[in-house]
Design a protein that fits this description.
Structural class: alpha/beta
Number of helices: 12
Radius of gyration: 22 Å
Length: about 400
């Protein structure tokens, strides 16, 4: 039985990627939501080797970082997988000074490049470049990044984090607000034709550095709807944290809450339903998932009654918040000292509650614990902006 509990966002219902079809055609054991796995798209790095790109008539140039973890990889994953049937993508990544060229995350050039060589290569093929999209600049020098503005093409980027303003991609809010000028070792974001932000709160951070209004606000391709309703008549209240748990995600606060519950012998239990490979989570019950179907299985098995959200840094989107809202469970969110994306995205969610102290948290759990939840429909929805941006010729066939 399918239900239509939806997350409020600007998605087109007819434009989605069916996760079941996607996993059968393009994936084996890899995970769309596996934030911490290296090589998120192609886990074994087994690309088809090619000698040149002579047969490619045109492409969108993507500048990316090495395949590490997080939302930046998840985002590019969804873009390449959906649009590669209509559009060729040439992806450049720098691995400790060795630059590799990848096509659609399926093919890889036999040749490796230095920065000087890759700039020359792009100059020789600039007539094939439709536009340039910078997914991330980590591992690329400012010299190389600035060279991308010399080809006479539209150059755009997306604010996955705050690396354009800060040497660490994920600074805390107090560190971020101290920045008054774009650092000299960063690209001037005023050079971009488009700066894409996932939320108005992110745009507010970058807006003060922009001399011209070239910000576009668009939510990311994401899950949207619920699937099945699950009754959760538990004898113990199950408090679930969904997603990666690290220091910036509030690991210490979750451990503190868990220790308090155990010390007071309360009829509650904290579990983490996440996809991290870290071993530094102390004494917490941990259940990993590597795709949306495994997440649904865990939700069905452990039947949480409430969701705990404890992120400590100014998120730029938060895929796990989407998943939490789709469950339709009450979300208890740790109060922030800033108005960020989490607060903004929860504005229209009726079952959100904020807490500061642990006793306050315990009281909210007792008041709002819920005996049902929804699993997540395995379809990723895209709004029209991404279609317009990443398909240069909508009538073009593969």
């Amino acid at each position: 039985m399918q239900h239509n509990v939806e997350v409020s966002a600007d998605f087109d219902d007819k434009t989605y990627l069916d996760f079941f079809f996607w996993s059968k055609e393009n994936f084996t054991n890899e995970s769309f939501l596996n934030f911490n796995e290296i090589n998120l798209v192609n886990l074994d790095n087994k690309y088809i080797k090619i000698n040149n790109i002579d047969s490619i008539k045109s492409f969108i140039l993507i500048v990316d970082f090495p395949k590490w973890w997080g939302g930046a990889n998840v985002f590019l994953n969804t873009i390449i997988r959906k649009y590669k049937c209509k559009q060729t993508f040439l992806i450049i990544r720098n691995f400790d000074g060795i630059i590799k060229i990848n096509i659609n995350d399926e093919y890889e050039l036999n040749s490796d490049f230095t920065e000087v060589e890759i700039i020359l290569f792009l100059e020789q093929n600039k007539d094939k470049i439709i536009k340039i999209f910078i997914n991330h600049t980590i591992s690329h020098s400012v010299y190389f990044s600035n060279s991308l503005f010399n080809f006479g093409k539209e150059v755009s980027t997306i604010t996955h984090d705050y690396y354009y303003l800060f040497d660490k991609p994920q600074p805390y809010w107090d560190d971020l607000i101290k920045i008054t000028n774009i650092p000299n070792n960063k690209i001037d974001i005023n050079k971009f034709d488009k700066v894409i932000c996932q939320n108005v709160e992110v745009s507010n951070v970058f807006d003060k550095f922009l001399k011209r209004k070239n910000i576009i606000i668009s939510p990311l391709p994401d899950f949207k709807k619920s699937l099945n309703i699950i009754d959760t008549n538990n004898s113990t209240i199950i408090i679930a944290v969904i997603g990666e748990l690290s220091t910036i995600k509030g690991k210490e606060k979750v451990e503190e809450i868990d220790n308090y519950i155990k010390s007071q012998n309360l009829n509650m239990k904290v579990i983490v339903i996440g996809c991290t490979n870290r071993n530094d989570v102390n004494n917490l019950e941990y259940h990993k998932y590597f795709n949306i179907n495994e997440l649904n299985d865990l939700l069905t098995k452990y039947k949480p009654n409430i969701i705990l959200e404890t992120s400590q840094w100014p998120e730029t989107y938060s895929y796990t918040l989407t998943l939490s809202m789709i469950t339709n469970l009450p979300i208890l969110s740790l109060k922030k000292n800033f108005n960020g994306v989490i607060i903004n995205r929860l504005l229209n969610y009726k079952k959100k509650y904020f807490f500061e102290t642990i006793p306050e948290f315990i009281s909210l759990v007792n008041q709002h614990s819920q005996n049902f939840l929804f699993t997540i429909e395995p379809k990723i929805y895209y709004n029209s902006f991404w279609d317009d941006y990443f398909i240069s010729n909508k009538n073009k066939n593969k």
